[in-house]
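TA notes. Do not distribute before section.
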Amino acid sequence: MSDKIPVVEIFGPTVQGEGPNVGARCIFVRVKGCSFKCSWCDSKFTWNDHDSDVVSYEPTTLADLIVQKCLDTKCRKVILTGGNPCLYNFTYVLKKFKAFEISTDVETQGDLYPDWLDSIDTLVFSPKAPSSGMPDTYDKITEYIKTQISFPRKIAIKIPIFNTEDIEFSRKYAEFVNSISDKNKRSIDLRLYLSVGNSDVTTTASIRDRVLSDYESLLNRINEFPNHFQDVYILPQLHTLVWGNKQGV
């Protein structure tokens, strides 16, 4: 892990567009760098090693900056995203957030497990389905979740769906969530979210109609598998409905 944390953008308050806290008012911290390179990634600008907009912060400086932004805007939720935040050490940053009663979500594909993940309020795993061209992290994600059964926080598995193969991929995660939830309803808040994949992340035009049409199709497809998707949340990406592919909102 690097001592400094390279940040591409800090923006908000805005709203969380997907997952367990969809609609929540929050501030986003997007780091540079990712251990995956998904074909449909909507944040490929985080991969650029020569991006002049990247600022590398000491953890103390970054913590102070974000805490002040939270205080100024009366916003007490921060989303760590990327890229992959698990490439860096957020231990000090999270301690500072706790001192100011700021809650933190992290979004990661589940290939890396730094110790500071235990300090996260909402942990969102986003395993990459076949359409991404990246390897599955099922074994790592499920093994980690099994160690967290009695830990009082939200854990979510969020999978963008682009095609039939992705739906098939998500079925094993649905079965895992069902098995864990059935046995541990009172000790873990574990949920599965399927979101509509954004098939064109480059256009500057509105994509609202396409997203809603794809969302309707996804709803219909999931309903074909009632035995597998017994307890699943199916959502559009809220931010794409409002802002399309606009960055920093």
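Switch to the second chain here.
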Amino acid sequence: MSRSRRRLAKGIKPRPNYRMRASAAPPTPAERIARLSPVEVLERINRTKLQREELDAQLALLIDHAVALGVSWPQIARRLGVTRQAARQQYHRHHRDAEQAHAG
């Protein structure tokens, strides 16, 4: 390295710990939501509602299939994190509502 380059290099101070700096943690879901505009929040509410409805329908189909396969209500209830009675009541209510929607 030439003298002039060495002199220039001596005057340059490296940033402290610029290579050692830890990457920032990704934002939490609450932090991401807090950054949304009112229009974005309403769109997300709508999209999430539709996703929930799709997942509820899928869950009902899975429960119906599990019952048809002979899976017991206590086993289903354990997977849902509820009591056997709560699982049956929820499933039958949902199933009854779906039948009424198809009949009407």
